[in-house]
Structures are given as structure tokens and as C-alpha cells.
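The following block was generated as part of the benchmark described in Methods. Ligand: C6P.
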Amino acid sequence: MDINKIRNDFPVFRNEPGLAYLDSAAMALKPDCVIKAVDDYYNKLGVNVHRGVYRLSYEATDKYEEARTIISKFLNCDFEEVVFTRGASASLNLVASSYGLAFLKPGDEVITSELEHHSSHMPWFNVCEKTGAKLKYVELDKENRITVENFKKVLTKNTKVVALTYVSNVMGYITPIKEIIKLAHEVGAIVTVDGAQAVPHMKVDVKDLDCDFLSFSGHKLCGPTGIGVLYGKKHLLEKMPPIEFGGDMADTVLLDSQTYKAPPYKFETGTPIIAGAIGLAQACKYLESIGFENIINQEKKLRLKAIEELKKIDGVIIYNESCETGVISFNLEGIHPHDAASVFDNNDVCIRAGHHCAQLITKKLGTIGTIRASFYFYNREEDIDKFIKAVKEAKDFFGQF
Ligand code: C6P
């Protein structure tokens, strides 16, 4: 893989060749082809879909629905199973607010974990409070991973929903989700997978996983902001009530009754995120052209090298040494992660510091937050040199107080 050629696809790197962008877990940068797809829609079409009875509107509708086809192939599912949303948070909330509120009752159980992002766990906390269902947590192992063994301990015949992350945004661990889905289905539970940190990095085939729902955001896979996907099995989407009502999702509206369109449109109220969907489809094609094997290999290679260098520095606490994706969560002994972050910024190194919207796991780690560096396929060895230099500077500077 020619990294310099790949970096040339990204305007941010052309503008700032020296930038060490190590915050792709928060948001991935955008390549020219995605920006062009969005730009083309605004420049050449720029009109609404599903409504206009004129050529430009038909063309916009075709582009929007073609994006759904591309994404359904990307995930290996049917066209109707792709619901466009504002992002992973909106998708995860949709499942809880629709499926959860409609079908859970007192005595039912929902399994989640302390590794979850707030957007995966909090909607189910809310649903359990409202329905009287019980929220249970898989005990994490010594490394703070979700294991099949520990999952079995909380799974019962009362389990109705399993809401777990596929890849943790703080630890970067991959959950053994396929085995968990199989076990959950044996007791009749459905599984909603938070794929926000998985879909950008590995081939996710929803048929192979057999998950019931999968949520992700476009912006973490080189797509535009404000667009996300909820994959849902057709028979489940069909029986779920809509949670937003109004334009485009309505079928027949009378004074004393109303009916809704079939999925996915039942869940896409109002003017949809047309440019976002078109840009996201282009991003999926772009990642496929890079190849998921190449993507994960580059991330792992860089991460290993960075860990090797970090371990040579005294006072570095690494929380996820065995992680199998591109994330390093660490701290510098006695230094607040936000203080350290300012030194990274001064060195043109973009990292994230804090609880990463996952307070359950940062609390479990015994810290208020971590410094997180996350690698993607466009990072290179020079980024590690800059990163390590910043770590040493932060340590030297704040270590004196
Ligand atoms: N994590 C991070 O820096 P949204 O914000 O809706 O696009 O994605 C929410 C979300 C859900 N699940 C996981 C596992 C995530 O990592 C995220 C977003 C970013 O880690 C922003 S907090």
C-alpha cells in the first residue's frame, strides 16, 4: 500500500503535510471522491427527492436510492434493511425507542456492558426505567474485555435484548460478537450491535454475523457528517413502530386514522440527508478500493510500533496493550490527560483526551479519562515519531510540577 499516494487523496494532508492526525476514532478525514460526490449533488442537482415531478428530482431520487443499494451491498443485506439516520447515536436510539419501548415489559432483561459508548448504553437504561425491564452488565475480564464465558453468566431465558459494542472506542477491543449473537438467539433475544468503531476498520457482513441491528456513522468511515445507518432485519423493522411522524414516512393520513410507508421509509421522516447518503456511498466504495485487509494491517503495524516506543518511556500507563485494532489508551503518571493534550496540539499531533463518552469504562480503569491515539490507514511512521516526541515533551513539561 502506497501511503503517500493515499494521503494525496486527502485535502487536509495536502494543506497540512506535517499533521499527525491520530484522532480517526472520533472522525475520519474525507478523501476528494467523497467531497466531490457531495459537491456534485449540490452543484448539479440540489433538489429534493421522492417529491418533485421533474427531471432533476428524479435524478436526485435515483442518486439517493442508489446510495442505499451501494450500502446494502457493502453490508451484505437487502435494500429495505438500510435506514438512513443522522449517525450511530440516532440509529442506536431508534432501536431502543422503537423496539425497546414497544416490546419490553417488567421481568424482561437487557444485557449491555461497561465497555459501551454512552449512545449504546444510555438508551437502554432509559427504556429499562420506563418499561420495568432489568438492565444487566456482562462482567469484563481482567483486561476489561467482553468474553463469551462472562456473557453466558448473565444470559437467561428472560433475556430479550443484547446491546453491545463490536469494537470499543476507548480500548479498541473486538467483541466476540458472532458467538454472542448465536447464544442470544438460542434464548430468543435480539442483538443490537454498535458498529461505530467496527465498520470503518473491518469487513462487516451482517448476514454472516446474523445480528438483528447494526448501527454506525458515516463520518468515521471517511464519509460526511450528519449521516448514519441503521441496518435492521426486515421482519423486525416491519413490526417496529415509527418514532418520528410527518413528511415522507406517511402513507395515508385521514382525520381518524393514519398509516405509514413500509421500512426503511417508515423511519426516515422529513427531507432526508440526501448529500450525506450520496457521500457515504462513495466513502464505502473508497474503503473497498483500499481493502479492509490493508486498512487493519496498517493500523496494527503502526500501533505496535507506537506501543514499543511508549514502553521505553517511564511513567506511561497503557490500558489496552493487547488491543487488536488501531487504538492506544494511555496516561502519563500524575498528569491530567487534558494538560497533556495541549502539548500534543503544540506539536501538530491530533489526539483525544477525556472519557470519550464512555464513562463506565474510564471509571472502571480508575481514571477520569485517558489520552487516546487512534490510527487509520492514512497514518505513517513519521506520525509515530511526532507522537512520541510530544509524549516526552508533555512528560518533561508537566513532570516538573
Ligand atoms: N465516538 C469517539 O471519539 P456519533 O457521535 O453518533 O457519530 O457516534 C456515537 C458513537 C457510538 N458508538 C461508538 C462506539 C462510538 O465510538 C461513537 C462515537 C466518538 O470515540 C465520539 S464520542
